[in-house]
Amino acid sequence: MILLRRLLGDVLRRQRQRQGRTLREVSSSARVSLGYLSEVERGQKEASSELLSAICDALDVPMSEVMREVSDDLALAELAESAAVESAVAPMRPLLGAVPSVPSGPDERVTIKAPKAPTEAVDVVAA
């Protein structure tokens, strides 16, 4: 699950680190406790709009820029999550229509082509 508060915290931390500033400097400038700002950056606390505005002002970064970066990170996270789901489901797709009919006789053979190596075949003997 993608948590917006974690993405926002990551963006705020990157902005602060790009400026070479410490948590203490930004928390003092934003008039937010050091511990609370740390929790926001780690995605453990939700930042209110007022708090976010104060942090952005302290960083001298427009809130729209922070939110745009969060939006970009969210889009990438959604793509990654979607790709992970697709790759987990993809190996099962070739098997869905490939079940042969059950042989009628005890020694009747059925040939099934392996999906990864189409030139190889596997003989299955009904028991």
Secondary structure layout:
Layout: H1 4-18, H2 23-30, H3 34-41, H4 49-59, H5 63-89, E1 109-113, E2 121-125
Antiparallel strand pairs: 1-2
Summary, kept brief:
The protein is mostly helical and 127 residues long. The chain has helices at 4-18, 23-30, 34-41, 49-59, 63-89; strands spanning 109-113, 121-125.
Q: What does this molecule look like?
A:
It is a single chain. This protein is mostly helical and about 130 residues long. It contains 5 helices and 2 strands; from the N terminus they run αααααββ. It has helices at about 5-20, 25-30, 35-40, 50-60, 65-90; strands at about 110-115, 120-125. It has a two-stranded antiparallel sheet with strand order 1-2. It is elongated.
Mean pLDDT: 83
- Main sheet makeup: 2 strands, antiparallel
State the shape: elongated
Strand content: 5-15%
Distance between the termini: 46 Å
